[in-house]
Each structure stands twice: as C-alpha cells, then as structure tokens.
Amino acid sequence: MTTAARRTVTLTVNGAARSAPAEDRTLLSDFLRHTLRLTGTHVGCEEGVCGACTVLLDGEPVRSCLLLAVQAQGRTVETVEGLADDGRLNALQRTLKETHGLQCGFCTPGVLMSLTAAEREGLDEEETAGQVLAGHRCRCTGYAGIRAAVAARHRAPGGPRQAPRGGGAEAAG
Amino acid sequence: MSLRKGSVVKPPVFEYMAPATVEETVRALARHGARAAPLAGGQSLVPLLNRRRVRPDVVVDLGRVAGLDTVRVADGAVRIGALARLRTLERHETLGAALPVLRQTVRLVAHPQIRTRATLGGSLCHADPAAELPALAVALGARLRLAGAGGERELDAEEFFRPGRTARRPGELLTEITLPLRDGFTHRFVEIPRHAHGGLPLVGVCAGTRREADGTVTAARIAAAGAADRPLRLRGAERALTGGPLTEEAVARALDAAASAAAPPADPHGDAAYRTALLRTALRRALAAAPHPGTDPKERA
Ligand SMILES: Cc1cc2nc3c(=O)[nH]c(=O)nc-3n(C[C@H](O)[C@H](O)[C@H](O)COP(=O)(O)OP(=O)(O)OC[C@H]3O[C@@H](n4cnc5c(N)ncnc54)[C@H](O)[C@@H]3O)c2cc1C
Ligand code: FES
Ligand code: FES
C-alpha cells in the first residue's frame, strides 16, 4: 500500500498567491476550507450534485469537491470570499439579498459563483435561469428569489455584464 | 468532524501522476495495468473515489497531457480528442454546424458546471448504459482509437460497449473519437429525464433517417440509452423504417421492434415495463422531430 504522499500546492486564490502542503488525495474543497481556512465554499454532497462547493477555476465554474487540490496547481481559483469589495457586498450579492434569493444561505456561495461566471460570459436570462441554476440544489427558496435576482440583474442599467472580468486582482480589493 | 489542518480526506490513498505526453501516459498505464485509473474530467471517477467505491493504487491525471483535446472537422468526419471537454463541444461553432446532434446531445448531459470538466472520452469510458453520449456514439457509428503498450487499435462503438463494461483493456488509453458525417442523415436525441434538467435520463433515443425527396426512408441509424446493460443499437427498428415512407404504420412497427429488443433495468425510478413504454415514447418523439426532406436544415434546433 502506498503511503499518503504530500506535496506543496501553489495556486492563486482570489488574486493572492497561496501555497500549502496537501496530500495528493485532498479535494480542492477541503484544501480551501481546512487548509486555507476559506470556509465560504460550502460542501454538501461531495458527489457533484448539489453545487454548494462551486468555485471558479481559471474563470470557469467547477465543483471543487470533484477536483484534487493538486489538479489546481499553478491555476487561478476564485471563491465567494473574493466577491465582496472591502467588506461591501458587490452588486450581484446585493441583488440576491434584496430579492430574498437566500434563506439559510447554504447553497448561496455556489450559486453566486455560477452566476458570476454566467454574467461575465454574457449568458442570457433564460440560459442562466434554466441551465445554470439547474446545477444548484436550493432546499429553501424554491428558486423564486434566485430567479428574481437573475431577472433583476438583466433589467439593471448596464446589465449584468458589469461584473469584473478575470476576478482575482480587482475582487481581492 | 474537526477542522484540524489537513485532517480531512475522503478518497483512499493513491499515488498521483500527471504525465505530459501520450507516450508517458501509456507507459505509466501499462506499468500499473488494472491498478491504475486514468483521471479525465473526474466527474464520474472522483465521486467514486470520494465514496471509496473504487480504490486504485495509482491515479494518472490526463489533464496535463498535450494534444488530446483537439477538434477537427475534415474529410467527411469529425475527429475529437478524448480529453475534449463537453463545454468545448457545446460551443464549437464549426462542429455545431457540421454535426448539430452532438451539440444538442451534449446540452442534455449534466449541468454547465459539470460540462466545464467532463470529457467526451471520460463519458465513453465510464460507459453508463443510461448515458447520452455512448448512445450517440453507437447511433452515429463512432470509431474509438485506443493506445496501449503494444500499439494502437480502433474499435467501432458497438464493439467497444459490452454488457456492463467496455472493451478497453487495463492500461489502454482512449485517445480519439471519430464521428462520420453521414450524408443526408439528420439525427436527433430525445430523452425522458428523471428530473427537469441534468442527470442521467430514464431513457434516451438517438435516431436518424436518410430520406429521398419523395419521403422514402433509405436508411436509419438508431440507438437507445437506458434500454439495456449497454447503449443499444435498435436494428429491428431501423429495418422497420427502411424502404418506405415514414408512415404511422412504419413508426408503429419500429416502436414494437424497439420494445422487443429492450431489456431495461428495474430500480425505484421505474420497472422494466415502465421504461420500455418510455422507450417507445422517446423513439416516437425522435422520429417525429426528423425534418422532412426539402426543408431548410437551418430550421433544425
Ligand atoms: C451531477 C452530475 C450529473 C451528471 N449528469 C450526467 C448526465 O446527465 N449524463 C451523463 O452521461 N453523464 C452525467 N454525469 C457524468 C459526467 O458526464 C461524467 O463526467 C462523465 O461520464 C465522465 O467524464 P469525465 O471526463 O469526468 O471522466 P472521469 O470521471 O475522469 O473518468 C470516468 C472513467 O473513465 C476512465 N477514463 C476517462 N478518460 C479516459 C481515457 N481517455 N482513456 C481511458 N480511460 C479513461 C476513468 O479511469 C474512469 O474510470 C453527471 C455527473 C455529475 C457529477
Ligand atoms: S459538495 Fe460539491 S457538488 Fe455538492
Ligand atoms: S438558501 Fe437554503 S439551501 Fe438555498
């Protein structure tokens, strides 16, 4: 039997270079939460279904429970902690709050990261409310509030495309 | 569960390798044989690792292998590297124009957040009998290229998918999938989902016919997902449709032939009779969606 190999994982998280040892079998979700202490990323099912653990890897939404931390070696990761600017909620976060798009908040970090990616890509309202939200399980809201947030963002002057691109640097504030 | 640093692990211990070339990958896989698991998108393998349903000694990450994710449309065929992500296939414009059914089917698979990672090769090697892409590969007559220590071989999709497993030998790497562009054929994928969106369907059908201007069906290629212990080519249904117009009687004969070929699993989502009834529905819808000869192909979804 092999022993648990460890190596140093170096990656950029929310604009800052981070480096820490991890076992090869450590999931990115656990590396973020337990090693880097970024507990904003939530973990529900650990089989890709619920979406709570969704983060952006090089700008794309992925399940952090289905990635090994070593697979993110040298890559850029964005988590929900990177969205607020100096403690001030960003426009998307404020909208979700105003439309009651969250209750217990367990699914919210993942939903926010998926919606952030959808806005940067310029996905339309139908694609976002259909395909993108289908990738998240919310046990509280019945989705009505989340869909209202998507609709409100698409009605907002300047629209959802205002979300900063490339995340990292700007978001880290 | 404590928050002590590094104390939380789910998958069993394994050795992790990330080779950079196909040659290195094949060597590593050959050395470890059945004890090695290639890791592509990880969207099926990592859930199995997390639940410790599989315990490979070595995980060979394909994510850093160069040149395995290309997409080429040329010489009457589409050639797709095994590591091409579903998201790439969904957005590839040349591919979408050449083979619309591929994009249409990819969008039925899982969710955008899964498709950013999941690969075509991973879906075919995982070979869930209810998965969409293996059924599409059988319906279109895909060829799969496998690389092993002893060299390369190419298999038809129908030879690749065996009852409950694939013909891939331990140590072999799937490198490329060739989908022939069949002149005059238009395929559609229709599925009956478990939920509204994403997740494996209860059943799915990929069906295509080639028709003459007068409506006579000259050929049909049909395969089903969720209808047996592997993606199932529905030859009886193909024969029932060929040689005449797509009449209600011909469709009824095809549905009967499909139902008698099916041997679907039974589970809490539905028994075999229910799934067979759904197969008839999916096939009927797929055939109804076939465009009539002479209509503008751009009107297809
Ligand atoms: C929430 C969720 C929903 C899903 N919904 C669907 C769905 O609706 N329909 C569907 O079909 N699938 C669905 N899936 C499965 C998803 O499509 C998988 O990602 C896919 O089946 C496997 O692709 P992968 O690249 O992630 O492969 P991996 O998980 O990396 O590998 C899968 C298997 O294939 C082997 N393998 C991978 N690549 C190669 C290769 N090149 N050569 C040799 N062996 C290889 C691996 O060793 C492993 O055994 C879903 C998954 C999740 C998590
Ligand atoms: S914890 Fe990753 S998808 Fe549920
Ligand atoms: S707000 Fe509770 S799960 Fe979504």
Defining traits:
heterodimer, A: 173 residues, alpha+beta, Ubiquitin-like (UB roll), DNA polymerase, domain 1, 5-stranded mixed β-sheet, 5 strands, globular, disordered C terminus, B: 301 residues, Uridine Diphospho-n-acetylenolpyruvylglucosamine Reductase, domain 2, Uridine Diphospho-n-acetylenolpyruvylglucosamine Reductase, domain 3, Enolase-like, domain 1, 3 domains, 5-stranded antiparallel β-sheet, 4-stranded antiparallel β-sheet, 12 helices, 14 strands, 33% helix, binds flavin-adenine dinucleotide, binds FE2/S2 (inorganic) cluster, FAD-bd_PCMH_sub2 (chain B), FAD (chain B), FAD-bd_PCMH_sub1 (chain B), flavoprotein (chain B), Mopterin_DH_FAD-bd (chain B)
What do these coordinates show?
The complex is a heterodimer of chains A (173) and B (301). Chain A is α+β, with helices and mostly antiparallel strands. Chain A has two domains: 7-82, Ubiquitin-like (UB roll) (Roll), CATH 3.10.20.30; 91-167, [2Fe-2S]-binding domain (DNA polymerase, domain 1, Orthogonal Bundle), CATH 1.10.150.120. Chain A is 33% helix and 16% strand. Chain A has six helices and five strands; from the N terminus they run E-E-H-E-E-E-H-H-H-H-H. Chain A has helices at residues 28-35, 91-98, 108-121, 125-134, 144-155, 168-172; strands spanning 6-13, 16-23, 54-57, 60-63, 76-78. Chain A has a five-stranded mixed beta sheet with strand order 2-1-5-3-4, sandwiched between helices. In chain A, strand 3 and strand 4 (60-63) form a beta hairpin. Chain B is an alpha+beta fold. Chain B folds into three domains: 15-61, Uridine Diphospho-n-acetylenolpyruvylglucosamine Reductase, domain 2, CATH 3.30.43; 71-180, Uridine Diphospho-n-acetylenolpyruvylglucosamine Reductase, domain 3 (2-Layer Sandwich), CATH 3.30.465; 187-294, CO dehydrogenase flavoprotein, C-terminal domain (Enolase-like, domain 1), CATH 3.30.390. Chain B has twelve helices and 14 strands. Chain B has helices at 22-32, 45-50, 86-91, 93-98, 100-106, 112-115, 120-126, 132-140, 157-160, 235-241, 248-261, 272-288, and strands at residues 15-17, 36-39, 58-61, 71-74, 77-81, 143-148, 151-156, 161-162, 165-166, 173-180, 185-192, 203-211, 217-225, 232-233. Chain B has a five-stranded antiparallel beta sheet with strand order 4-5-10-6-7. Chain B has a four-stranded antiparallel beta sheet with strand order 11-12-13-14, sandwiched between helices. A three-stranded parallel beta sheet of chain B has the order 1-3-2, covered by helices on one side. In chain B, a hairpin with a 5-residue loop joins strand 12 (203-211) and strand 13 (217-225). Chain B is globular and about 60 Å long. Chain B starts with 14 loop residues before the first strand and ends in a 13-residue tail after the last helix. The model of chain B is unreliable at 294-301 (pLDDT under 50). The chains are: A alpha+beta (173), B alpha+beta (301). Flavin-adenine dinucleotide (FAD) binds next to strand 2, helix 2, helix 7, helix 8 and strand 10 of chain B. Chain B: Residues 9-184 form the FAD-binding PCMH-type domain. Chain B: InterPro entries: CO_DH_flav_C, CO_DH_flav_C_dom_sf, Diverse_Substr_Oxidored, FAD-bd_PCMH, FAD-bd_PCMH-like_sf, FAD-bd_PCMH_sub1, FAD-bd_PCMH_sub2, Mopterin_DH_FAD-bd. Chain B: This is Carbon-monoxide dehydrogenase medium subunit.
